[in-house]
UniProtKB/TrEMBL annotation:
This is DNA-binding transcriptional repressor PuuR. It comes from the Bacteria. Keywords: DNA-binding. Residues 29-83 form the HTH cro/C1-type domain. GO terms for cellular component: cytosol. PROSITE patterns: HTH_CROC1. GO terms for molecular function: DNA binding; DNA-binding transcription factor activity. PANTHER family: HTH-TYPE TRANSCRIPTIONAL REGULATOR, TRANSCRIPTIONAL REGULATOR. The lineage of its organism: Bacteria, Pseudomonadati, Pseudomonadota, Alphaproteobacteria, Rhodobacterales.
Length: 209
C-alpha cells in the first residue's frame, strides 16, 4: 500500500514558536541597546559580534546561542533572563459582548450619565492602563462640563449630538466625530443637542509604579 503524502509539516508548529522566541529576544536586545543609546557598531565592538549578526538577532532572523546571549547581557548590563521577558509575558484580550459591559459608578453618574466599562487590563508591560467606556445620555441626563481627571481621553461619537466642552472651547460632536484631549482640563457635555446620545470614551493613564 502506497503511503499518502503529508499535507502538513510536523515541524511547522515548532518552527513558528521558535520564530516568536527569536523575535521576542531581538526586540529586547534592541530596546535595551537603544535605551542606553548604544549604536549597533558600538555594541559590535564591545561584544566581538559582527554588525550583520547583531542586525539578524535584533530583527529575529536568527537563533542566538546562550553564549551569545550571555555576551550581550554583560555588554548591556542586564540579566540574561531579560531577553526572554517578551516571550514569557501573557497577552490578555477581553471580549465584552453587546449589552454585557459592567455599569460603573463614576463622577458623571450623578448627572444621569450611564457608564458601561467595556474592559480593563491592570498591570501590563506597556505601563499604561486603558479604560474604554460606553456612555449613554438620555432625556433625564444633565449637562456636566466640569469632569477633571488624569490621563488622556478619546471620545468617539456613535449616536445623537452634543456640544462638548474642553477647557475654554466647545466642540459640536456628531456621529463619527472624534475628540482627543488632555483629561486634566475641565471637560464634559455642555449642551445635549440630540438625544439619546452615545459615545465611546477611552481613558488612558500611566499605571502606578
Amino acid at each position: 500500500m502506497t503511503a499518502l503524502p503529508l499535507n502538513q509539516d510536523p515541524h511547522r508548529i515548532r518552527e513558528t514558536r521558535e520564530k516568536v522566541l527569536e523575535v521576542a529576544i531581538g526586540r529586547e536586545v534592541r530596546a535595551h541597546r537603544r535605551k542606553q543609546e548604544i549604536t549597533v557598531s558600538e555594541l559590535a565592538a564591545t561584544t566581538g559580534l559582527s554588525i550583520g549578526m547583531l542586525s539578524k538577532i535584533e530583527n529575529g532572523n536568527t537563533s542566538p546561542s546562550l553564549t551569545t546571549l550571555q555576551t550581550l547581557s554583560h555588554a548591556l548590563a542586564v540579566p540574561l533572563t531579560t531577553f526572554f521577558k517578551g516571550f514569557e509575558e501573557k497577552r490578555v484580550a477581553i471580549h465584552t459582548k453587546a449589552g454585557e459591559g459592567v455599569e460603573m459608578e463614576r463622577e458623571g453618574t450623578r448627572a444621569n450619565h450611564q457608564y458601561n466599562l467595556l474592559g480593563h487590563i491592570g498591570s501590563n508591560s506597556s505601563g499604561v492602563i486603558v479604560e474604554p467606556y460606553l456612555i449613554t445620555l438620555s432625556d433625564q441626563s444633565d449637562v456636566f462640563p466640569t469632569f477633571q481627571h488624569g490621563g488622556i481621553e478619546t471620545i468617539y461619537m456613535l449616536e445623537g449630538e452634543v456640544n462638548y466642552r474642553h477647557g475654554d472651547k466647545v466642540h459640536s460632536l456628531k456621529p463619527g466625530d472624534t475628540l482627543f484631549f488632555d483629561a486634566n482640563s475641565p471637560h464634559g457635555p455642555e449642551v445635549l443637542v440630540k438625544l439619546p446620545a452615545r459615545y465611546l470614551s477611552i481613558i488612558s493613564y500611566p499605571q502606578d509604579t
